[in-house]
Amino acid sequence: MLALRPNCECCDRDLPPDSRDVVICSFECTFCTDCAHDKLGGFCPNCGGELVRRPIRPAAKLANNPPSTVRILKAEGCAPSNAA
Q1: S-S: 44 plus which of 18, 25, 34, 77, CB 3.0-4.6 Å?
Q2: Measured between alpha carbons, how far is 17 from 21 in angstroms, rounded to an integer?
Q3: Tell me: the pLDDT tens digits for 52-79?
Q4: Is 44 within 8 Å of 52 (Cβ atoms)?
Q5: Is the CB of residue 40 less than 8 Å from the CB of residue 47?
Q6: CATH top-level class for 1-73?
Q7: pTM of the model
Q8: How far is CA 61 from CA 2, 32, 48, 54, 66, in A?
Q9: d(Cα 2, Cα 77) in Å, to the nearest integer?
Q10: Where does 1-84 have alpha helices with state H?
Q11: How far apart are CA 8 and CA 30, in angstroms?
């Protein structure tokens, strides 16, 4: 089950479980769409994998399957993408 991490690893922006402005890689590294597009060029800086929109868990399922509260943040931030 997806962890639904609460923040962008680059800028620490809050990313609620119902947000459509969230992308993840296959390892669930989590980024806001602004960082993913503007800084990362659509690829995870950790694994190099493709970033895709994180699905939204139905609200009725959140009580028994809550999102993660563990915040992960790259202390150095995310380097701008070299992709053109």
Answers
A1: 25
A2: 10
A3: 999 999 999 999 999 999 999 988 888 7
A4: no
A5: no
A6: alpha beta
A7: 0.90
A8: 12, 23, 31, 16, 8
A9: 23
A10: 33-38, 59-62
A11: 6
